[in-house]
Design goal:
- The complex is a heterodimer of chains A (818) and B (515).
- By secondary structure, chain A is an alpha+beta fold.
- Chain A contains 14 helices and 34 strands.
- In chain A, the strands form seven sheets. Chain A has an eight-stranded antiparallel sheet.
- Chain A is elongated, with a radius of gyration of 33 Å.
- Chain B has 515 residues and is an alpha/beta fold.
- In chain B, helix 8 runs parallel beside helix 9 and helix 11 packs parallel to helix 13.
- The two termini of chain B are 37 Å apart.
- Classes of the chains: A alpha+beta (818), B alpha/beta (515).
- At the A-B interface, helix 4, helix 6 and helix 11 of A face helix 2, helix 12, helix 13 and helix 14 of B.
Chain lengths: 818, 515
């Protein structure tokens, strides 16, 4: 920890302040401007930021019963007119290490990857694997037997495993992943996350990567790199090219796969390694400054005693003020030792180390004259409030109290500054960005609430045309509330290459089952065959079929009365070209954006755009929706899809990745009948056990819906997650929240909740939907559980299996196979 | 027609060709008192800042006689404390407290306040309506909702500028106090009336300022009691959270006569609002006192109807129109002096009510095509009452005007010059939420320019469009840019020095509101 403390002052809120004390770092000349008024983001190195005034202690002036330290003898005999302790919040940098070890496991022929950290914190290993044959640095879900207990799956690409303490009282945390060398894992990728601070830790600006095949070893971010490379140094590009070609020709698919596996197997010569990497964590530490003021009866002077537990040398930067001016003065002599005059404006006093303890202290003697004689009304009220605790004072004493009150408020505002100054000093760009993000979020929140109450405001707009607020186009993409949505594909659907045509044949049947909306797969050209890695947005020839087949199937669904949702992947887009550094971030096709369209905070892709307004999807360049040209192009594209293809609405992929307000814009422009967003993140867990209260999780979804101004619904992922636990582990109590309502989004905002059981990201084949009508949805899950939701009637068939009733509630009922 | 205009304080002459069809506005400086304008579709002394862009500007040749303004030393003698870059205020929604005295959009405002604080904004402006607080009966004040807003602002560690609104608002609908409207039903003469007999009921006529028509009290007394009650209710905030108060001076709070009524598609000349019995009485007194009793029987007979073009009748005719006659001079100077005395009455009451509370008193003057002398009289009146002048339209540039000869920038320059002359500090406002960055650039130009007397700038106004993705990012950028000319000294002790030595143009503090 750096033995240095900074305490700075600010323009004071109170107009009767008289003393200003500032602690300075002795060794640093850099003093930050304390004005809270300055705009926080200018590039000026001394630029100040706002302060957060919180948890300020209340002022208590007590005339007696103050315990005083024994360090200052002369001080004890006098009446303490004021004493208060102020918290000093500082952000410190703690340095520690991350340990990565690959070792032979307990069981034969298995390996263990351990990741540890010796800093305190709630550490989470956020990891995924790259399989042999995967191109690029995409993450994938590891095989199930690799996932340590207590882990959480993050969609289809990552696992979050908490690091556990090896022993109580030990700061060392560790997580271990068991690896089967026979599995086709090319590398394990991970980043560390500290849940306490929400900070992500990367390696060289990228993921940590532990390669198991030689061809990945020369990646910059590889850990445990060998010094000698054999056969395939830097051949990643070549391989992926070949793989692409291999995949393109389907008939040879099988052959080419085996063909490529062989050399890699040969190269897998696992060797254990152990690496330590430095890690810096910013930690908030709490110190205090205690200030007490006494009146010395003999000299009629004010004695101000200040002590702090800040470690190291602490310098107080101080001056005195008369009356209600805020002008600093240097008091007459008898300054403490180690005091220097600073630019004729202030004094700087180095505090004495405290006897036999940490921290330091000093006694300041102030002339009586710094008691103001002119009292403002504010002052009077202050005096009155303190009179209660300082009884039987003379008039002079009253003034004294008001004087000290002045100091108190002065010091108080000063102390609140300390915390922000300290924070500012060690402020990193990341912190500033989080402030920006905070502002953006707040603005978004304010916007959505204001928006919802705007129409009444706009009604009379005609009368005053120049001030008129254009009345918002109300085209909520929320449908009628009676939609039953069917996902018209699964993760394997692309394999036939003619899915659209296959689906077309099923249209009538789906209609007869009661579905009213079908969700079609992402239609664009894509790096991944499933379609979720779009490249040229205007090329609608995909692994599901051609653009004409797509139009055909959309028409067919319209004929049978089913509305069609397009799967719009707006969060990210795969580049077709490399920039000068060889990074894939230049786009092709009709929307030939450059790296300005890529968010600037994902080092993988070296975007020049702004920081992402949401979470990043690590596998592809994330689109910066704050760019006007991007939004304009996306709006045009969505309108084009509506017009050309005939889509009725959208299923929006990975909307966690960008601000809902932009979605609102897109929905405004494209006016869908129905829109549903996939806001998917992990539920809250405590010690690997899912919490009953998932309010935070559903709140995040609701917040997103709010940001879209309620124009879009969202999948009720909360309900889905809870259902999983409830059904799999027989924890049906989860299906009700503390208020007796459904625990998911449906319990809070039913009209926007798109109840959701399974999709392509989950094991879709286990669910058999047996009824999907207007008022009832019923499914048998893995032949073990039958459930229905909706007010309509459903009873599971009495046949081969016996169903026993488990529980029911408003609009749902659940049975179990016995 | 060729006109010459005094272009700026250097006495540079600008010559402009003006076609008749562009003639919308007329500025007639006969003596140092007269302010008069045609704007949009109305005749009024001053108009709404947000609408004057349609107005056309014409100076008669008489305007040319003015002296180039010499910058007064008065201001440089005034030391101002704050110098740490630019302060910012944002106006809260007009209906922050609804007409039924509840806090509206509380959650949105709370989030908005946090965002503004994080942005580094200094404070917010809160419109406080007479019709909400003293709604039911005279002297029965209900401050609780406004107090809770003030608390929110205090909690957010922001400053508060309170605008006392003694007028009614159409949008959102906030009427005058019920008991006042009731009096108005039986006594419509408390309102302005034009030649056609139409009443303007959104604020009281200035002619009754000193008549005991409100339950035996004069409006000035009622306003004064309102201010006193406000002061005692908000005493804990005075001087700390509340740093400024604006006194409502007329329609939309501005020192002007009502403009046109209702909506008229064809912009016409408007009407004089001097036909209620009290105005007529005052006119009569004035006519008798000046020895022309016959001139006191009514307004000019030869003005066009309010929706007619100025040239329809003879009063505003260009050559030999009645306005140039001794009668025209008599009438117009009386009409404008009434306005100035009204402003004087209200500002002096506000200034004496709040003088000792550490708050600045402001009054709003619409950015109108005053001539320099007209503004001089207004500025002098502000100086007399130690009030700051709020001017809207800081975001308007010459380029943004539809008519090539209308120059808001020129106008603003003239007002600033007048204020500088009298040592009156200006609080700027924008006329609308800026959609284009151009508006922000213009504001910046107005605030950071040389010889600046703009002391505050209020960005109007928080609401949905303010926080919309189309607007908020550019506002953020604007705030960021404003603060660029920051101090570069590296230690705080020098803060104090800067206070002493700072130049006027680095001392702008900005108050932001949205309209």
């Amino acid at each position: 920890m750096n033995a240095m403390s900074t305490v700075l002052s600010q323009t004071l809120l109170h107009n009767y302040c008289r003393g200003k004390f500032i602690c300075l770092p002795k060794t640093s000349n850099l003093l930050l401007k304390p004005y809270s008024l300055n705009y926080p983001f200018n590039s000026h190195p001394n630029a100040t930021t706002f302060c957060r005034f919180k948890n300020l202690p209340t002022v208590k002036v007590s005339g007696n019963s103050v315990t005083e330290t024994s360090t200052v003898k002369t001080f004890e005999s006098n009446d303490v007119v004021f004493q208060e302790t102020f918290p000093l919040k500082q952000t410190q940098r703690e340095e520690g290490k991350v340990f990565i070890r690959l070792d032979k496991g307990k069981e034969k022929k298995r390996w263990e990857l351990s990741v540890g950290c010796d800093l305190a914190g709630k550490w989470i290993l956020h990891w995924g694997v790259t399989y042999i044959g995967d191109t690029g640095c995409e993450w994938d879900q590891p095989p199930n037997d690799m996932i340590p207990p207590g882990s959480i799956s993050i969609k289809d690409y990552a696992i979050e495993t908490p690091l556990k303490k090896l022993s109580e009282g030990d700061a060392f945390h560790q997580a271990t992943i068991d690896i089967d060398p026979k599995s086709e894992i090319a590398a394990i990728n991970f980043v560390l996350k500290d849940e306490e601070t929400g900070t992500w830790y990367q390696h060289k600006g990228r993921d940590f990567k532990v390669p198991f095949v030689d061809y990945l070893q020369d990646d910059d971010n590889a850990i445990g790199r060998k010094t000698v490379f054999d056969l395939w140094p830097g051949a990643l590009g070549q391989i992926s090219n070949k793989l692409d070609k291999a995949e393109a020709s389907q008939s040879k698919d099988q052959d080419s796969k085996t063909e490529f596996k062989e050399p890699k197997r040969e190269n897998m010569r696992l060797e254990g390694f152990y690496e330590e990497l430095a890690i810096v964590k910013e930690v908030v530490t709490h110190n205090t400054v205690t200030v007490s003021v006494r009146k010395c009866l003999e000299t009629a002077k004010n004695l101000l005693y200040l002590e702090t537990d800040l470690p190291g040398d602490v310098v107080i930067h101080w001056g005195v003020c008369r009356d209600d001016t805020k002008k600093w003065e240097i008091p007459a002599a008898s300054h403490p030792p180690e005091t220097i005059v600073f630019k004729n404006k202030a004094l700087r006093t180095l505090l004495k180390p405290r006897e036999g303890g940490n921290g330091c202290c000093e006694l300041f003697t102030l002339e009586k004259e710094f008691t103001g004689s002119s009292s403002s009304t504010d002052q009077h009220s202050q005096v009155e409030s303190s009179d209660a605790s300082v009884p039987a004072k003379t008039e002079e004493a009253d003034q004294k109290v008001s004087y000290t009150d002045g100091i108190i408020s002065e010091i108080r505002s000063l102390m609140s500054d300390i915390s922000c100054e300290r924070g500012r000093k060690s402020k990193t760009k990341a912190v500033q960005e989080s402030i920006l993000q905070e502002i953006e979020k707040l603005a978004a929140e304010a916007y959505s609430i204001f928006r919802s109450s705007t129409p009444t405001f706009a009604e009379e707009a005609v009368v005053e045309p120049e001030i008129s607020v254009p009345s918002p186009k109300v085209s909520p993409g929320t449908g009628t509330g009676f939609e039953i949505l069917c996902q018209g594909f699964n993760w394997e659907s692309h394999k036939s290459g003619r899915w659209y045509m296959e689906l077309k044949e099923k249209a009538a049947h789906l209609s007869s089952l009661g579905f009213t909306v079908i969700w079609l797969p992402p239609p664009t050209e894509s790096v991944s065959p499933e379609g979720y890695m779009p490249t040229d947005l205007y090329n609608l020839n995909s692994r599901y079929g051609t653009v004409d087949e797509l139009k055909d199937v959309v028409n067919k669904f319209h004929e049978v009365g089913i509305k069609v949702l397009g799967d719009a992947v707006l969060n990210h887009r795969c580049a077709q070209f490399q920039n000068a550094n060889g990074v894939w971030n230049v786009f092709g096709g009709r929307l030939n954006w450059d790296d300005r369209a890529v968010v600037g905070d994902d080092p993988h892709f070296q975007g020049r755009g702004n920081k992402s307004s949401g979470d990043n999807f690590h596998a592809a360049p994330n689109i910066d929706h704050s760019q006007d040209f991007v939004r304009k192009d996306i709006k045009e594209w969505l309108c084009w899809l509506r017009r050309e293809i005939g889509y009725d609405g959208w299923r929006l992929d990975f909307v966690r990745g960008f601000w809902g307000g932009y979605v609102k814009d897109y929905l405004d422009a494209s006016e869908p009948h129905f829109s549903v967003g996939e806001y998917w993140d992990s539920l809250s867990y405590t010690y690997g056990e899912m919490d009953h209260n998932q309010d935070a999780h559903r709140q995040r979804i609701i917040d997103w819906i709010n940001a879209t101004n309620g124009f879009s619904g969202a999948f009720d992922v909360t309900t889905k997650g809870i259902l999983h636990s409830a059904l799999e582990r027989c924890e049906y109590w989860r299906l009700s929240d503390q208020k007796g309502k459904p625990p998911g989004v449906v319990g809070w905002w039913p009209s926007r909740a798109v109840t959701f059981i399974e999709n392509h990201d989950t094991g879709s084949t286990q669910v058999e939907i047996v009824k999907a009508e207007r008022d009832v949805y019923a499914a048998i899950i893995d032949e073990k559980v039958a459930m229905k939701i909706g007010p309509g009637h459903y009873e599971p068939p009495s046949g081969r299996q016996k169903w026993s009733f488990v529980m029911e509630g408003r609009d749902y009922k659940i049975w179990e196979a016995s | 027609m060729e006109v010459s205009v005094m272009g700026n304080s250097q006495g540079h002459m600008v010559r402009t060709e003006l076609a008749y069809r562009n003639l919308r506005f007329c500025c007639v400086p006969k003596n140092d008192k007269l302010i008069f304008s045609w704007r949009n579709s109305s005749v009024c002394l001053v108009g709404q800042g947000s609408r004057w862009r349609k107005a056309q500007l014409r100076f008669t040749s008489k305007a040319v006689h003015s002296q180039p303004l010499v910058r007064s030393d008065r201001l440089s003698a005034t030391k101002r404390k704050s110098s740490d870059g630019v302060k910012l205020f944002v106006g809260l929604p007009l209906d922050t407290v609804s007409s039924c005295n509840g806090v509206n959009h509380e959650r949105a405002i709370a989030a908005g306040l946090k965002a503004l604080k994080l942005l580094g904004v200094e404070g917010v402006e809160l419109p406080l309506w007479w019709g909400v607080v003293e709604k039911e009966a005279r002297g029965k004040y209900e401050w609780s909702s406004y107090l809770s807003v003030a608390e929110m602002v205090q909690k957010a560690a922001l400053k508060l500028h309170v605008s006392l609104c003694f007028h009614a608002s159409k949008q959102p609908k906030i009427p005058l106090p019920e008991w006042v409207s009731k009096i108005g039903e039986s006594q419509p003469s408390i309102f302005y009336k034009d030649r056609t007999g139409k009443h303007y009921k959104d604020c009281l006529s200035l002619a009754i300022d000193d008549l005991p028509v409100l339950d035996g009290k004069t409006p000035v007394q009622v306003y004064q009691e309102f201010c006193e009650s406000f002061k005692s209710a908000f005493m804990p905030f005075m001087g700390s959270t509340i740093t400024g108060i604006s006194m409502g001076l007329g329609p939309d709070g501005e020192l002007r006569y009502p403009s046109h009524q209702g909506k008229s598609k064809t912009p016409g000349v408007g009407e004089f609002h001097c036909y209620d019995e009290n105005m007529l009485r005052l006119l009569k007194q004035h006519a008798e006192a000046t020895g022309n009793p016959l001139w006191g029987l009514g307004g000019p007979h030869d003005v066009p109807n309010h929706d007619q073009s100025p040239n329809v009748n003879t009063f505003f005719k260009d050559h030999g129109g009645s306005w140039e006659s001794p009668y025209g001079d008599f009438f117009l100077s009386w009409y404008s002096s009434q306005l100035i005395s009204h402003g004087d009455r209200l500002l002096s009451l506000a200034s004496s009510a709040f003088r000792d509370n550490g708050v600045n008193v402001h009054g709003e003057v619409p950015l109108m095509h005053y001539c320099k002398e007209g503004y001089a009289a207004v500025a002098e009146m502000f100086m007399k009452n130690s009030c700051k002048m709020i001017l809207p339209g800081m975001d308007l540039s010459d380029h943004s005007q539809h008519h090539e000869s209308s120059s808001p920038e020129l106008l603003l320059g003239q007002i600033k010059a007048a204020c500088r002359h009298y040592g009156v500090e200006i609080s700027g406002q924008n006329s609308s939420v800026s959609e284009a960055p151009a508006g922000f650039d213009q504001i910046k130009k107005n605030l950071l320019g040389e010889k600046n007397v703009v002391n505050l700038f209020t960005y109007q106004r928080m609401g949905a469009s303010f926080f919309s993705p189309d607007h908020f990012p550019s506002f953020t950028q604007f705030v960021r840019n404003l603060n660029q000319p920051g101090l570069d000294s590296d230690d705080l002790a020098e803060e104090e020095e800067i206070t002493e030595s700072s130049h006027m143009n680095s001392e702008i503090s900005i108050q932001v509101q949205t309209a």
